[in-house]
C-alpha cells in the first residue's frame, strides 16, 4: 500500500489567516510503502516543500506585553500607533486566552468557560469591538464646526448646564454649567452644551464627513479578522438603516459621541494620529514580507485648516496639562514628553427614575454590565508626536479615572522604551 502524505498547518484567525497565502509556501510530499498492518517499510520518494515568506509585523513585543499586563483584570482594549508612519506598535485586547488549546481540539469545559465569560476573551476588542466614542468625538464636532465657519476661534457659547432643543432638555455633565466657553475651553473642560450648540448649527452631514476624514466610520485595511467599520451616521444612513428621518436631537447626541455613533479603539487611535500630525495616517500592521518593506501609512496632508487643527490640539493639551483639564491627574510631568489627550465616557444606559428613587444615582451603584464605558485618547510628545494611544475600558465608568491612567502608563512605557523612572 502506497500513501502520499501532505503535512501542513494553516492559520484560522487574525494575521495568520489573512496572510496565509504568503506564509504557506508550497507543501512537500513523500511517498511511502507500508505493510498490511500499517508499518512503514520504506520511503519511495520525497518532494521537499517550498517555505513561505517571512513576515515582520510592526508590533513592538515589549510594548505589547506591557499593554496586555496593564489591562489585566479589565475588559478592555488598547492601541498604540506611530503617527509618523501608521505602524501599530501594540494592539492589546483583555482578557486574552491561550490559542494553543484550539490546536488539537479544545475541551467542552474550556470552551464553555470562554463563551460564558462576561469579559468576552474570544473577541478582539481592538478592531472588532465598536463603542460610542463619547467625548473623544468632540474633536470631530469642533473641527466640523470650525471648517464650516459656524463658529470661530474666539466665539463663545454660554453653558448654563443644559440646552433645550425641540422641547427636550439636553444636559451638560456639569449640572451648574460652565459659563462662557470657546472651543479650546470646551475641549479642556469637556463642556457638552458647547458641542450641542455648534453641532445643531453645523449639521450632521458635515460632522459625519469630518469623522470619516479623521478615520472613523471607515474600515481600515489591516490583516485581522472582522475589522469593524463603525458608524459615522448622517441623514441618509438613518433613512437607509431605519427608514426614519434624522432629528435635530440625533445631531445633539452625535455631537458628544453618543446616539448612533460607534468607533473601534483602532479607529480612535487613527483619529488621534491624524489630528496630531495633520496627515491622513493609515494603520500598518505588516512591516515587511519576504524582506520587502510594505508601503508606509504616513498618508497625505489632510485637507483641514491647520489653524483649526492647532486649536483642537491646544484644547487636548489643556485636557492633560491645565489644572481644570479633565485628565490633569494623569498628566506626564516630564516637560520634554508632555501629553495631549481627551477623556470620554460613553453611556450604556440611562439610570431610570425608579432606580434614582431607590438610591441608585451613580454608575458605581449599578451592576458592572450596566456601567458606562471609559475612554481616553492621547499622543505625545505634544510638539513632536511619536506615539498615539487609545484605550477603552468596558463598563469602567469615567474616562478620566479608568482609561486615562492606563493610557498614560502605556505612553510612558513607549516614550522611555522601558520602565520609566518613578518621578
Provide keyphrases for this structure.
single chain; 423 residues; alpha+beta; five-stranded antiparallel beta sheet; three-stranded antiparallel beta sheet; elongated
Radius of gyration: 25 Å
Distance between the termini: 73 Å
Order of helices and strands: EHHEEEHEEHHEEEEHHHHHHEEHEHEEH
- Which structural category do the helix and sheet elements fall into? alpha+beta
**SS elements, strand count:** 15
Give, in spatial order, the strands making up the sheet with the most strands. 6-5-15-14-13
What percent of residues are in strands? Answer: 15-25%
Percent of residues in helical segments?
25-40%
Could you give a short account of the major beta sheet? 5 strands, antiparallel
Describe the structure.
By secondary structure, this protein is an alpha+beta fold. The chain has 14 helices and 15 strands. Helix 5 (138-148) packs across helix 8 (204-213). Residues 1-7 have low confidence and may be disordered.
Could you give the topology of this structure?
Elements: E1 2-6, H1 14-18, H2 20-24, E2 29-34, E3 40-47, E4 55-57, H3 61-70, E5 76-81, E6 88-94, H4 108-116, H5 138-148, E7 157-159, E8 162-165, E9 168-171, E10 179-181, H6 183-189, H7 192-202, H8 204-213, H9 235-242, H10 248-255, H11 265-277, E11 286-289, E12 292-293, H12 306-321, E13 340-346, H13 353-357, E14 373-380, E15 387-393, H14 399-415
Antiparallel strand pairs: 1-2, 2-3, 4-11, 5-6, 5-15, 7-10, 8-9, 11-12, 13-14, 14-15
Helix pairs in contact: 3-14, 5-7, 5-8, 6-12, 7-10
Amino acid at each position: 500500500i502506497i500513501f502520499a502524505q501532505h503535512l501542513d498547518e494553516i492559520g484560522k484567525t487574525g494575521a495568520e489567516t489573512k496572510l496565509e497565502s504568503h506564509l504557506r509556501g508550497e507543501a512537500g510530499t513523500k511517498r511511502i510503502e507500508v505493510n498490511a498492518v500499517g508499518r512503514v517499510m520504506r520511503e519511495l520518494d520525497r518532494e521537499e516543500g517550498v517555505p513561505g515568506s517571512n513576515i515582520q509585523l510592526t508590533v513592538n513585543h515589549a510594548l505589547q506585553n506591557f499593554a496586555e499586563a496593564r489591562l489585566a483584570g479589565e475588559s478592555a482594549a488598547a492601541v498604540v500607533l506611530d503617527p509618523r508612519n501608521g505602524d501599530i506598535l501594540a494592539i492589546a485586547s483583555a482578557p486574552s486566552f491561550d490559542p494553543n488549546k484550539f490546536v488539537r481540539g479544545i475541551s467542552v469545559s474550556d470552551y464553555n468557560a470562554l463563551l460564558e465569560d462576561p469579559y468576552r476573551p474570544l473577541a478582539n476588542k481592538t478592531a472588532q469591538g465598536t463603542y460610542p466614542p463619547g467625548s473623544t468625538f468632540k474633536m470631530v464636532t469642533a473641527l466640523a464646526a470650525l471648517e464650516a465657519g459656524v463658529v470661530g476661534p474666539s466665539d463663545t457659547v454660554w453653558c448654563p448646564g443644559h440646552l433645550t432643543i425641540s422641547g427636550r432638555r439636553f444636559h451638560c455633565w456639569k449640572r451648574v454649567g460652565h459659563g462662557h466657553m470657546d472651543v479650546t475651553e470646551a475641549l479642556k473642560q469637556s463642556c457638552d452644551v458647547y458641542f450641542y450648540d455648534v453641532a445643531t448649527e453645523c449639521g450632521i452631514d458635515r460632522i459625519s464627513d469630518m469623522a470619516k476624514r479623521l478615520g472613523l466610520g471607515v474600515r481600515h485595511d489591516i490583516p485581522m479578522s472582522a475589522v469593524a467599520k463603525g458608524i459615522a451616521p448622517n441623514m441618509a444612513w438613518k433613512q437607509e438603516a431605519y427608514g426614519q428621518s434624522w432629528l435635530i436631537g440625533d445631531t445633539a447626541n452625535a455631537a458628544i459621541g453618543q446616539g448612533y455613533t460607534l468607533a473601534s479603539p483602532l479607529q480612535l487611535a487613527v483619529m488621534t494620529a491624524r489630528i496630531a500630525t495633520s496627515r491622513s495616517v493609515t494603520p500598518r500592521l505588516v512591516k515587511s514580507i519576504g524582506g520587502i518593506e510594505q508601503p508606509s501609512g504616513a498618508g497625505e496632508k489632510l485637507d483641514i485648516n491647520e489653524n483649526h487643527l492647532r486649536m483642537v490640539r491646544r484644547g487636548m493639551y489643556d485636557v492633560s496639562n491645565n489644572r481644570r483639564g479633565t485628565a490633569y491627574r494623569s498628566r506626564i510631568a516630564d516637560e520634554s514628553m508632555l501629553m495631549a489627550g481627551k477623556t470620554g465616557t460613553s453611556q450604556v444606559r440611562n439610570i431610570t427614575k425608579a432606580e434614582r428613587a431607590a438610591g441608585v444615582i451613580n454608575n458605581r451603584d449599578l451592576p458592572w454590565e450596566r456601567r458606562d464605558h471609559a475612554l481616553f485618547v492621547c499622543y505625545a510628545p505634544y510638539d513632536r508626536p511619536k506615539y498615539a494611544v487609545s484605550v477603552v475600558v468596558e463598563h469602567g465608568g469615567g474616562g478620566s479615572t479608568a482609561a486615562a491612567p492606563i493610557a498614560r502608563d502605556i505612553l510612558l512605557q513607549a516614550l522611555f522604551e522601558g520602565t520609566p523612572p518613578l518621578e
